[in-house]
Amino acid sequence: MLNRTLCLAVALLLGWAVSSSPVSAQDMRVYTTVSELSRAPAPSRAVSHSLTLFHAGKVYDYMEEAGEVLIFEPVHHRFVILGKNFSATEVPFAEINHSLESTRTESVQVVEKLLQQSDDNSRRLGMLMNFQLNPEFQSNLSENRNVFEMKAEPLTYTVKTTKLDSPQFVRQYLDYADWAARLNFVLHPSSNFPDVRLKLNEALRREELLPTQVDLQFETLNLQNGSAPRGKQMQYRAEHQFTWEFQSVDRRHISHWEKQLRSNDIRWMTFQEYQQKLVAQRSK
């Protein structure tokens, strides 16, 4: 199962028509299919699907395979995670930032030690980690502004873009993508650091462009058991369909999730307890 970092931070929006005149000043619907392209010569395969609903100042991000809903509440500076079996937790933005700062401090120390090693594998791993902590890209925007490329040695984004009449939808989407990338690294620390995705979002926000297709190719890192990188190249594609009208089932989803959160059966836990539950689930 692909985690949410690859669904959002890898976000690759493929060739869907995007209306330049949203019919609602508030609602936005994004349906995402993420596919792996690294299995050549085998055909690509879909690895996850997600539905993201922007409504009434909140964002509801539902991944059916995980059975989990992320609810982004920027007014309250927090996420609420609604898991399986009526479990739920609250994650304040401040806690996400604190966790990222702690991890960054530890990672910088690891990078320094790796770069001082004599073997090539350790130094390569140190350079790859350092890039994720301090990503720098060569960027190029096509003349008609519909293709944007960000390129570096270990990672490349190729993005098809569109310009909307209402740039607030671009900001709304990218602001959520920023925080989702941060949260997903905290939930899944073995994934890529969020800085890489934040760099892409920053460039798109500056140009006021919405991505309609993104190809992501990167070299994997493996920090488990002290193993060294093997230089394996991964490539993912996410297809997102943007619309500005909800389907009837979308409003039923939102009503159901909000009702669950108000239920007496809901079991609230601390974020640390929720993280421990995720670790236990992954180890099965």
Q: What is the topology?
A:
Layout: H1 4-9, E1 28-36, E2 45-55, E3 58-63, E4 68-73, E5 78-82, E6 87-92, H2 93-115, H3 120-133, E7 138-141, E8 147-151, E9 155-162, H4 167-187, H5 195-207, E10 210-219, E11 233-243, H6 248-262, E12 267-268, H7 271-283
Parallel strand pairs: 6-12
Antiparallel strand pairs: 1-2, 1-11, 2-3, 3-4, 4-5, 5-6, 7-8, 8-9, 9-10, 10-11
Helix pairs in contact: 2-3, 2-4, 4-5
Written overview of the protein:
A hairpin with a 2-residue loop joins strand 2 (45-55) and strand 3. The chain has one domain (4-283). A twelve-stranded mixed beta sheet has the order 7-8-9-10-11-1-2-3-4-5-6-12, with helices on both faces. The chain has helices at residues 4-9, 93-115, 120-133, 167-187, 195-207, 248-262, 271-283; strands at 28-36, 45-55, 58-63, 68-73, 78-82, 87-92, 138-141, 147-151, 155-162, 210-219, 233-243, 267-268. Residues 1-25 and 223-229 have low confidence and may be disordered. The chain is α+β, with helices and mostly antiparallel strands and 284 residues long. It has seven helices and twelve strands. Keywords: Signal.
